[in-house]
Amino acid sequence: MCCDLKRRFLLLYATQKGQAKAIAEEIRQQAGAHGLEADMHCISEMDKYNLETEKDPVVIVISTTGTGDPPDTARKFVNKIQDTTLPPDHFAHLQYGLLGLGDSEYTFFCNGGKTVDRRLQELGAQHFYNTGLADDCVGLELVVDPWIDGLWCALKEALLLRKENEGMSSDVDAVSGSLSAAPHIVHELNLSSEVQNLKLEDEGVKSSDVLTQKLVDINLVASAGDTEPSLVRSVPPVSQSALNIPALPPEYIEVQFQGTHGEDPHLSSLISEGTTFEVPVTKAVQLTSKDAIKTALLLELDIQDTVFDYQPGDAFCVICPNNVNEVEELLQILGLSEKEECFVCVKVKQGTKKKGATHPQHIPERSTLKFILTWCLEIRAIPKKAFLRALVECTSDAGEKRRLQELCSRQGATDYTRFIRESNVCLLDLLHAFPSCKPSLNLLIEHLPKLQARSYSVSSSNLYQPGKLCFVFNIVEFPACPTRPVSRKGVCTGWLAELVAPLLHPSKNILDTKGGSPSTEKISIFARPNNTFHLPADPSVPFMMVGPGTGISPFIGFLQHRQKLREERTDWEFGETWLFFGCRHQDRDYLFKQFLLPFRDELRCFLENGTLTHLKVCFSRDSTTTEVAPPKYVQDVIRLYAKEVARVLLKERGYFYVCGDKKHIADGVSDAVVDIISMEMEVDKLEAMKILATLREAKRYLQDVWS
Fold first, then answer.
1. Beta-bridge partner residues of 583
2. 350: domain CATH number?
3. Beta strands 210-215; 198-200: pairing state
4. Which of 380, 467, 478, 534 is spaced 20 to 30 A from 542 at the CA atom?
5. Which residues, in sequence order, are CB contacts of 361 under 8 Å at separation 6+?
6. Range of the structural domain that residue 130 is part of
7. Is residue 225 part of a domain?
8. d(C-alpha 425, C-alpha 482), whole Å
9. Does residue 450 surpass a pLDDT of 80?
10. What pTM did the predictor assign?
11. Distance between CA 140 and CA 17 in Å, rounded?
12. In this structure, is residue 512 part of a structural domain?
């Protein structure tokens, strides 16, 4: 370890999409101002650290993925510490603080961090600092920022305590002196002559390593008649406040433009999660009518020439590009349109002040500029405050500069949440709103995250359709709003819809297989197995499925698989199956229904051949003339069959599957099940919730949900 052992702490991060790593890098960057050195590693790099012998404090930043799982990079670590042969004092020497990242839209909030935290405690490790749980649903920074602010004092006390315990009194004095005299560094703002009314107060850097600014002339930002704030305009008290602004992140990437000769890397080189497969799209079907509120498509992929394998209930990922028009627009704004085909060499900047700066893994060392913006960077990402802080230095207009400072400041936290985060503002939106902002390419590479592959549930069975993989999705729509003047489609769903447009028959919405030639369009995919959302291992066990809208997708695979098993295993006993389905209108978005699929009424076939025992449906927007209004939502239908739900779940030890939107579906369904348990077992609601939790733990109440 190269760090000064008297001031060192071990910093571990476990990330799925890069957020935990970015926060760990921020901690490492701030550590220097507090007289500390962070020895930072990905938690998967177990050859570079050893918790069994670690004497210094340990800081862990860990995210959560899937249905409460630790990120892929932490699986090996988690498996190791969950070894049941480890004694209860295995980590009795360890002092640690943990910051968990999660999303309260999901049931198992921050479960990755909670799992590690709980196990370390069981093995004797002690907290030197309270665990923080940050919620991406409301903004990670609401917990992350104050947690980091309080970390330094806790680290100082932990280091002093360790030295005292070791009897190193002389070193205690040295460490105490170096920490209490943490340098009061003033990070200068490069204010142009146009911003003379912004005065930098020389108060030094406080515990959060911030800048303090005072606005002298508020007329720059808002006129007296402006009473409502917006993305580009502030009002009092923010417009009149002295601002606590994050320290300017040091630049660390250097780009060099080269010629146009060469080839871009293969897409597989961008993926570290597993083997990628380039497969043709052989069929596309629109499952909804033209006048439906949402457009749902089913795509069929040909995987017969690959070793790609899956089970019903699994998910897989599609490698998708950014929208070509948005890439061209961004190139134009940056003044780089003429260089889009030029190769770019990306290196770490020599002499950078960023500690531990490394080449971003998702950026090829050499590729064209267009390739980087199309396949590597998430240009739709919501800009983080550190990015806004960096954009301040690229903005020439005084009013625009001030507003960007406000949006990244603590005083402007509410405005950031309202006009950036909740409005899904991206870099392009900012560049339109602040036209004097002209960031460099290296700044984009430093601050824009990796373009993530998109995950979809499998809607087929390899046993039923060998060599085929189907999936269903709604084309995501983002309507125009004050902060985003243009409407957009989802990055992946919009691309897929455009890609398969030639396959969609203009009148029948199905592929005309008799006439045209087969599709040559291909997409790159890789497996994302689901370890739990599978059919019961015992086919005699009954199960219930709740899948409104496109949530029905994995259950089509379940039923296809069950039908094939029934055909092949006539001597087996099969349990009953229930499907609760809901949509807005019976004649517009009843997926897998005959009026839209004349060649295959899948649900009716499952009912007729006995694969599906019970099908219960509801339509939330259809009018009715009956005296008693039918149930609108699947949770209402489930309540009508309370005794059957209780019988399957509690008496027959069956399984209960839910797939759909977390906020509007999964929560409502779980509330209905709790009510049913409470009523049928004659227990109070708290006890019913405990019983449901037990079912979750037993993997008999399973969810595949999204926010």
1. 619
2. 1.20.990.10
3. antiparallel
4. 467
5. 272, 450
6. 7-162
7. no
8. 10
9. yes
10. 0.81
11. 14
12. no
